[in-house]
Amino acid sequence: MSNTAVFAGGCFWCMVQPFDTHPGIISVISGYTGGHVENPTYEQVCSGLTGHTEAVEITYDPELISYAELVEIYWQQTDPTDAFGQFQDRGDSYRPVIYYQTEEEKQIAEKSREQLQNSSRFDKPIVTAIEAKTAFYPAEDYHQDFYRKNPARYHASSGLREKFIEEKWQHEK
């Protein structure tokens, strides 16, 4: 038995590895969701005209890892105070969003966001959106498992994110 979860947190290249390395994760696919264009290309999404975000679809075994645990991993990969992109990636297609599929997932995400807001970890409001999941379109093959296929370019593109995570979450690791 498996479930799926979809999260947008900036460049999807940087959102695969943090989930991919946990027990209970079956697969992590980079793709596009939340927009109005069917089967968009990377170039279309980057144009900002499709309404899609770059996102990851995580297939997981709920017996080994819970949706709530996935949400906690998600928070530790993003800047939840930045609604207009993530780190060096700017624009609508990079906005942070937790996409829920059930009312239970929505409640888990909302409760988690409220707890994070009340934690005083961040000086600014938590602005990550929580939206109903729509169609998910896998990205082109060259975007899949990018951190494995092209580690030098992956690390070059993830520097600001890694610095932020270190500053905000170092005690959680």
From TrEMBL:
Pfam families: PMSR. GO terms for molecular function: L-methionine:thioredoxin-disulfide S-oxidoreductase activity; peptide-methionine (S)-S-oxide reductase activity. Residues 4-155 form the Peptide methionine sulphoxide reductase MsrA domain. The keyword Nuclease does not apply. The active site is at C11. It catalyses: L-methionyl-[protein] + [thioredoxin]-disulfide + H2O = L-methionyl-(S)-S-oxide-[protein] + [thioredoxin]-dithiol; [thioredoxin]-disulfide + L-methionine + H2O = L-methionine (S)-S-oxide + [thioredoxin]-dithiol. Keywords: Oxidoreductase. The keyword Oxidoreductase applies. Its EC number is 1.8.4.11. Belongs to the MsrA Met sulfoxide reductase family. Has an important function as a repair enzyme for proteins that have been inactivated by oxidation. Catalyzes the reversible oxidation-reduction of methionine sulfoxide in proteins to methionine. This is Peptide methionine sulfoxide reductase MsrA.
